[in-house]
């Protein structure tokens, strides 16, 4: 399977099932459509919307696009391509914006993949975290090059100094690029993570987790942002020199757009990186729990 076919194929996570016949093929229109279907669960106030707590806690636990679409259809019988009020939208996270955008791109003939990494454009300077945990979509142009797209900020939802369908790679660092910068001393690991009211989660351990999640996503295993296994579940003192060498190899392979399906599969085959039958999900609101995944969802 060549790179084009590999990234056109829906994963068990992204597969939408039946899609609207009038789904647009233009990436910009798809970004606006995703923006119309989803609202970030922490951004209700940004739009003057009182987010119901049960939606804030539960929607983003949906692992599959088919489940997201089921919830959307339960909240409104109107076609997915029609305007939705905020209360009719799915309350997700950046991963859900990225995954739904990826699903629609694949469904309309554009090779796409989900990327896990760190964005600079959500941080206001009040936290030591300058590169916040974030997920976007990467899609392929007809000339073979790849662009980063952020459906969460599409359609004027946020004031960002760039085209959301062409996010500069110094504004969003894929996890491998962040890891390499931290390992060479070009970046401070404590600038990477997620700011929380109780204090930021930050450091090289956080970057390491995203390196593992990004590789899985590249291989079509687009887990939840708080899922952990293998090298993403190890405590920092337990990480060995051999583990670091493996992470360096993953980062080198995934830091740029020139990452091959063959290399993804080769690296992912290492059991320290492969999603196992049981993972630990560090859910934001529902506590830490063990989740068993069917074999089809492990890549």
TrEMBL record:
Transglutaminase-like domain sequence ranges: 89-151
InterPro entries: Papain-like_cys_pep_sf, Transglutaminase-like
Region (Disordered): 1-25
UniProt cross-references to SUPFAM superfamilies, sorted A to Z: Cysteine proteinases
Highest taxon listed in the record's lineage: Bacteria
Pfam families registered for this protein in UniProt: Transglut_core
Transmembrane segments: none
Protein name according to UniProt: Transglutaminase-like domain-containing protein
Organism of origin: Streptomyces umbrinus
């Amino acid at each position: 399977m060549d790179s084009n076919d590999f990234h056109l194929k829906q994963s068990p996570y992204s597969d939408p099932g039946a899609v609207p016949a009038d789904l647009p093929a233009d990436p910009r229109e798809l970004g606006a459509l995703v923006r119309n279907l989803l609202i970030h669960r922490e951004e209700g106030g940004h739009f003057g919307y009182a987010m119901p707590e049960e939606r804030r806690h539960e929607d983003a636990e949906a692992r599959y696009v088919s489940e997201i679409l089921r919830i959307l259809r339960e909240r409104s019988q109107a076609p997915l391509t029609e305007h939705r009020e905020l209360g009719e939208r799915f309350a997700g996270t950046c991963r859900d914006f990225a995954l739904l955008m990826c699903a629609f791109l694949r469904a309309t003939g554009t090779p796409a993949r989900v990327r896990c990494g760190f964005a600079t454009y959500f941080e206001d300077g009040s936290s030591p975290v300058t590169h916040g945990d974030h997920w976007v979509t990467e899609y392929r142009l007809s000339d073979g090059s790849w662009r980063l797209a952020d459906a969460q900020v599409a359609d004027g939802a946020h004031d960002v100094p760039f085209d959301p369908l062409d996010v500069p790679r110094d504004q969003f660092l894929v996890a491998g690029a962040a890891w390499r910068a931290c390992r060479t001393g070009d970046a401070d690991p404590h600038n990477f993570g997620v700011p929380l009211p109780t204090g930021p989660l930050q450091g090289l351990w956080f970057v390491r987790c995203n390196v593992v999640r990004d590789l899985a996503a590249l291989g079509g295993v687009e887990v939840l942002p708080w899922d952990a296994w293998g090298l993403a579940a190890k405590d920092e003192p337990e990480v060995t020199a051999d583990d670091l060498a493996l992470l360096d190899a993953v980062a080198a392979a995934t830091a740029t757009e020139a990452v091959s399906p063959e290399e993804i599969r080769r690296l992912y085959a290492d059991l320290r990186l492969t999603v196992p039958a049981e993972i630990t999900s560090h859910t934001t609101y529902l506590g830490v729990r063990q989740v068993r995944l069917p074999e089809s969802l492990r890549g």
